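// run 5 | inverse folding | seed 20
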């Protein structure tokens, strides 16, 4: 009997949570922009530290350090990313509010997507 009493409240709570989660995901997608970069060197595996980021790289046209989250990488992507090298032209997806940090050597910019003319190197679709 108590379940029926609280069912409308529980259902409302579930609906509100679902709406908020979907709204957050959509707003993140709207705040991402593509930029073209040319790799300065290979994409480096971050070794020996506990970090939410697994790879880092620098580009010829921007000073900031670009980082790739470990949650965006699968086994196949892992090998493909390590095959990218100096001079490769890529399109990366970053947050639009990070554009001002592109010329700052002390800043890290998270990359949400990396692609070239043939491949998309990360799991998630943004």
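// decoded
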């Amino acid at each position: 009997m108590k379940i029926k009493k609280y069912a409308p409240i529980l259902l409302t709570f579930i609906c509100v949570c679902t709406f908020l989660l979907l709204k957050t995901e959509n707003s993140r997608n709207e705040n991402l922009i593509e930029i073209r970069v040319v790799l300065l060197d290979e994409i480096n595996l971050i070794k020996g530290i506990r970090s939410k980021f697994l790879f880092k790289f620098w580009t010829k046209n921007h000073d900031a350090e670009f980082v790739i989250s470990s949650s965006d990488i699968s086994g196949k992507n892992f090998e493909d990313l390590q095959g990218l090298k100096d001079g490769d032209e890529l399109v990366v997806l970053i947050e639009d509010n990070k554009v001002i940090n592109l010329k700052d050597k002390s800043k890290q910019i998270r990359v949400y997507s990396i692609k070239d003319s043939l491949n998309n190197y990360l799991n998630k679709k943004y």
